Amino acid sequence: MNKAFTLWILSLVTVFGVVAAAGQTEKPAPPAAEKTADPPDAEKKPKYEAHFYFTNETLSRNFGTWRTASVYVQRKFADKQIVWANYRISDRNGTRDQEFVGGFYKPLANKWAVTGEGMYSPTYRFVGKFSVMGEVEKVLPKGYVAHFGTRFTKYTTVAATTGYGMIEKYWGNNRAAYTLYVTKLSNAGTAPTHRLQFNHYYGERVNTFGFAVSYGKEHESLGPTLGILRSQTWSLSFSAKHWLTDKFGVSIDGTLHRQGNIYYRRGLTFGVRYRF
């Protein structure tokens, strides 16, 4: 990691510390288990959460190292509505991008809900220039939850539209989910991807650990030199989130990803979370 990027990371840590100290006080919207199954005293819980995440990924075949750092803040309302904002900076072998993200989750009548999110990048070297996402959610009988959504992303030379459907099943302290993604580039064909997930929840603070398996075809933006490539992929990942106290928690995520015959990517994400 070069000196400038190190200084930037330290400044983010400083900002996070200021937020935490000022609030004496938690990544994108929390899982459905947290949104649809709050205990009766939910109104007594902290309304805000702040997160800091840092990801380090190493690529095989001398493709270098990718690093990402982000600061995320969300506000949860008494009616379970959530709004959030996220600032993210990414470094891929010295090429950097910034992203500003904002979104909301809104419960509706009859166990329906909608989610919306937008992203803007002033740099857009390998991330999109902007993206918009919309999703509809329906809580079904017997612990099932269905999601349908779409995301449009505009890159420098092409646009990508992704439609997806997900079905979740909750039983006891467990969750399983299957998601089908289908992405269409404006100058190429479609790329379907399948994702299977399992999570186990434990403790009064809704701690969780789980794993996921993905496989299919995927578009990956590799910057202005290589452009956006479509290739056969698979990935394995694990995640764990644990609240050490009612206000302070940590998380860790690991990923092994194969991008066709181009490279393997191994990543580790560490996060800290604070409620206030």
Overview of the structural elements:
This protein has 276 residues and is mainly β. It has one domain: Porin, CATH 2.40.160.40. The chain is 11% helix and 63% strand. It is built from three helices and 14 strands. The chain has a 14-stranded antiparallel barrel. It is globular and about 50 Å long.
Q: How many structural units, i.e. domains?
A: 1
CATH fold field value: Porin
Q: How are the strands of the largest sheet arranged?
A: 1-2-3-4-5-6-7-8-9-10-11-12-13-14
Span between termini: 32 Å
pLDDT averaged over residues: 85
The residue ranges in which pLDDT falls below 50 over 5 or more consecutive positions are 1-42
Compute the number of strand runs. Answer: 14
Q: Any idea what the CATH superfamily is called?
A: monomeric porin ompg
* SSE arrangement, N to C: HHEEEEEEEEEEEHEEE
Structural class, by secondary structure, is mainly beta
Instruction: Quickly give the CATH architecture.
Output: Beta Barrel
Tell me the helix content: 10-25%
Number of distinct helices: 3
Entry keywords:
276 residues, mainly beta, 14-stranded antiparallel barrel, 3 helices, 11% helix, disordered N terminus
Concise summary:
This protein has 276 residues and is mainly beta. The chain has 3 helices and 14 strands. Helix content is 11%, strand content 63%.
What's the structural blueprint in terms of helices and strands?
Layout: H1 3-23, H2 32-36, E1 48-59, E2 64-76, E3 82-92, E4 95-107, E5 112-120, E6 130-139, E7 144-154, E8 159-171, E9 174-185, E10 190-202, E11 207-221, H3 223-226, E12 228-243, E13 248-259, E14 263-275
Antiparallel strand pairs: 1-2, 1-14, 2-3, 3-4, 4-5, 5-6, 6-7, 7-8, 8-9, 9-10, 10-11, 11-12, 12-13, 13-14
